[in-house]
Design a protein that fits this description.
The chain has 285 residues and is α/β, with parallel strands linked by helices. It has 2 domains: 20-107, Translation factors (Elongation Factor Tu (Ef-tu), domain 3, Beta Barrel); 113-243, 3-Layer(aba) Sandwich (Rossmann fold), CATH 3.40.50. Helix content is 21%, strand content 32%. The chain has 8 helices and 15 strands. The protein has helices at residues 87-93, 113-116, 130-142, 165-171, 198-205, 220-232, 265-268, 274-277; strands at 20-31, 34-41, 55-60, 64-74, 77-83, 100-107, 120-126, 150-156, 178-184, 194-195, 212-217, 240-243, 259-260, 263-264, 271-273. The strands form 3 sheets. A 7-stranded mixed sheet has the order 10-9-8-7-11-12-15, sandwiched between helices. The chain has a 6-stranded antiparallel barrel with strand order 1-2-5-4-3-6. Helix 4 links the parallel strand 8 (150-156) and strand 9. It is globular and about 50 Å long. The protein binds flavin-adenine dinucleotide (FAD) and FE2/S2 (inorganic) cluster (FES). Flavin-adenine dinucleotide (FAD) binds next to strand 4, strand 5 and helix 1. Residues 248-251, 253-258, 264, 266 line the site of FE2/S2 (inorganic) cluster (FES).
Length: 285
């Protein structure tokens, strides 16, 4: 299989700094601390085009703005899946359908759509980590013939950490050659599925790296343990793709908040292969 190439210079032309006023078209409550917001322009159109993996700054006016990946897009909206963790996300969660938000973007690079063509793709994620994976998953579902088998290994500590559960349990498993492997870490009465940490579950499922790429997205512990498991299963660092998150302010390479070695994550990322991260100080180890 040819090496997967990830574009990194694609975002440099986008220097959109002034937020566009947008309206919340729809809100779905995914878990007790995660909501998905569908956002459109005041004219009712999609704010901009973007590729799976790209990000944008969403503002709760007048409190502030944060970076989010675009978790899905429709004809007349972009979707952002927001975990309530602090000041701005708290304010976003307090908004209702019809309320106004600010939006600037798209920023960053995207998943290597061409490089993944013709391969089986294994998605590994935990909790809110499904948000960036969802953008790529839905793109692949829409271009199903271009890819081989799709597996999603997704987990959370409890059932309440699993977002988009309705899609995961009822919609996606019905799609051709899509295989879902769910687990939670803590046994509970409302769960009769797998109870396991993600990394041992991944090893138990014993995915072959032959003709397969992996896309990994989750918190630091899941990232570290699942990366070790993927390498143990024989995946090459070039064939494991991930997205990086750091605290960001400007999103366009001006404030210096998000640099890692020679890279600005807002401009060069968030999508990298593990092989690339091995050269960035602090990114993998
Ligand atoms: C490229 C990128 C994509 C992202 N995509 C998503 C997404 O799809 N969905 C989502 O819910 N969040 C996403 N985030 C994280 C999101 O931007 C932060 O959760 C948000 O900025 C928190 O803002 P706040 O004002 O609510 O929290 P604050 O009040 O600023 O902070 C609350 C707590 O969260 C910590 N924190 C804040 N930002 C981050 C961060 N980026 N990483 C780790 N810890 C942080 C703070 O240290 C503090 O402990 C993404 C971040 C980046 C950089
Ligand atoms: S967020 Fe300002 S340089 Fe990246």
């Amino acid at each position: 299989m040819p090496k997967i190439t990830i574009e990194h210079d694609c975002a440099r032309a986008t220097e959109q700094l002034v937020p566009l006023l947008c309206r919340i078209k729809d809100i779905s409550t995914e878990t007790s601390d995660v909501k998905a917001f569908r956002v459109q322009t005041l004219e009712g159109t999609r704010p901009f085009d973007c590729s799976p993996g790209q990000t944008a700054m969403l503002a709760a006016i007048p409190y502030g703005e944060c970076m989010f990946c675009v978790s899905a897009q429709g004809e007349d909206y972009l979707e952002f899946t927001v975990k309530r963790v602090g000041t701005v996300t708290e304010q976003l969660h307090a908004l209702s359908i019809g309320d106004t938000v600010g939006l600037r973007g798209p920023y960053g690079n995207w998943f290597p759509l061409e490089g993944l063509k013709g391969r089986d793709v294994l998605f590994v994620g935990g909790g809110i980590g499904l948000a960036p994976l969802r953008s790529l998953l839905t793109w692949m579902f829409a271009h199903r013939d271009d890819f081989g088998r799709i597996d999603l290994v997704y987990s959370g500590s409890t059932r309440d950490d699993l977002i988009f559960l309705d899609d995961i349990q009822h919609v996606w498993p019905e799609l051709p050659d899509v295989h879902i492997h769910l687990s939670i870490y803590r046994e509970s009465e409302d769960w009769n599925g797998e109870v396991s940490y993600t990394a041992p579950y991944l090893e138990q499922l014993a995915f072959s790296p032959q003709g397969r790429a992996a896309v990994l997205c989750g918190g630091p512990s899941l990232f570290r343990t699942c990366l070790a498991s993927l390498l143990k299963l024989g995946f090459e660092p070039d064939d494991i793709i991930t997205t990086l998150e750091m605290k960001m302010k400007c999103g366009i390479g001006k404030c210096g908040r998000c640099n890692m070695g020679s890279r600005y994550i807002c401009l060069d990322g968030p999508v990298f292969s593990i092989a690339e991260l091995e050269d960035l100080p602090g990114a993998v180890h």
